Amino acid sequence: MRLGFFVNDVAAELSGYTTTRLAQTATNRGDEVWYFGAADFIYGADDVIYAHGTAAPKTKYKTHEAYLRDLQGSQAVRQRVTVDDLDVLMLRSDPSTDTGNRVWAQTAGITFGRVAKRRGVIVVNDPDCLLKAMNKMYFQHFPEEVRPRTLISRNRDDIKAFLSEMGGNAVIKPLQGSGGAGVFMAKVDDRSNINQMIDTLVREGYIIAQEYLPAAAEGDTRLFMMNGKPLRYKGKYAAFRRLRRGDDLRSNIHAGGSKEKAVITDSHLRLAEIVRPKLVQDGMFLVGLDIVGDKLMEINVFSPGGLGSAQQFERVNFNEAVITALERKVAYMGHYHRNFANEEMAML
């Protein structure tokens, strides 16, 4: 399998990233693996998509630290790659991290991925549907019964009225963003602070005001979905729990949260089954569900991370399951060629 990973910036990747683990696993299995950053694509005068690719020089690595060290080191293989000749292009960038002078980079993978899929490359997650998911409005397309009650507005009075309707408090956050940035508990009777919070967030665009779920005090569960189903390998679910630190609303690991083993319940599986049709329809091959109590807080479709955390607790290499699934799609393509839409192939 010829496999490409699109990331924000190859030099900024870390050894613990899920992308690094997937790439090392594919390399060790004998697949040809390339990395591309946002500035690396070329639409040639011959109407072919190319990219300045980076690959690790060896075919076997014992650790993901060693793999990334070689990938980012002086011995890395760097050459112009014909993207149209790849079997799979996996889009693993986080658009919310490309701001300021790099706003142009937010849709680079989607833009070139859309062309590549028309040339027969399997692109996951499907780029046309990722374009629809560029902000948290995508979450509102899922059934109301699995979501907290939500208002999206830039109007201070609308937001305050919603807070009152929710009993005096709610969580507010930017419509665009990730990693727990700009997430606040807003209390309608704390007038000076709520005004300041809203004014701060509204500078970035629209604001999401969301029903506060008391169960959030116990943290959330990240459950991975692959091919529209909970990712389960060797009898273990790819999942882990994230816990808050003190009174911090955010349970994101890099926002100060901690993690522990998850126990997947019937409630988790029910939520997964409810969101399954939409994920299948949109060609969302690998996603992360963030679950609080019996509600979804977020569906991560861009570069969902944490497979390493799931492996830490379950003692199962979930990367093998993901790469095996991609290799199976390539085999299907060998039999059927381009008789399936990319959204369909992404979920087979």
Description:
With 348 residues, the protein is α+β, with helices and mostly antiparallel strands. The chain folds into three domains: 2-124 and 325-345, Rossmann fold (3-Layer(aba) Sandwich), CATH 3.40.50.20; 149-212, Dna Ligase, domain 1 (2-Layer Sandwich); 215-316, D-amino Acid Aminotransferase, Chain A, domain 1. It is 30% helix and 25% strand. The strands form five sheets. Strands 12, 13, 16, 17, 18 and 19 form a six-stranded antiparallel sheet that branches. The protein has a four-stranded parallel sheet with strand order 2-1-6-7, sandwiched between helices. The chain starts with a strand and ends with a helix. The model is unreliable at 250-255 (pLDDT under 50).
The percent of residues in helical segments reads 25-40%
The structural class is: alpha+beta
Q: Give the H and E element order.
A: EHEEEHEEHEHEHEEHEEEEEEEHEEHHH
Record field, number of beta strands: 19
Query: Which regions have little confidence, pLDDT < 50, spanning 5+ residues?
Result: 250-255
The oligomeric state is single chain
* Rounded Rg: 21 Å
CATH fold topology of the largest domain? Rossmann fold
Structure, briefly:
The chain has 348 residues and is α+β, with helices and mostly antiparallel strands. The protein is built from ten helices and 19 strands.
Secondary-structure topology with pairs:
Elements: E1 2-6, H1 18-28, E2 32-36, E3 41-43, E4 49-55, H2 64-71, E5 77-82, E6 88-91, H3 108-118, E7 122-124, H4 127-132, E8 150-153, H5 156-165, E9 169-174, E10 184-187, H6 191-202, E11 207-211, E12 220-226, E13 229-230, E14 232-233, E15 236-237, E16 239-243, E17 258-260, H7 266-281, E18 286-292, E19 295-300, H8 307-314, H9 318-336, H10 342-345
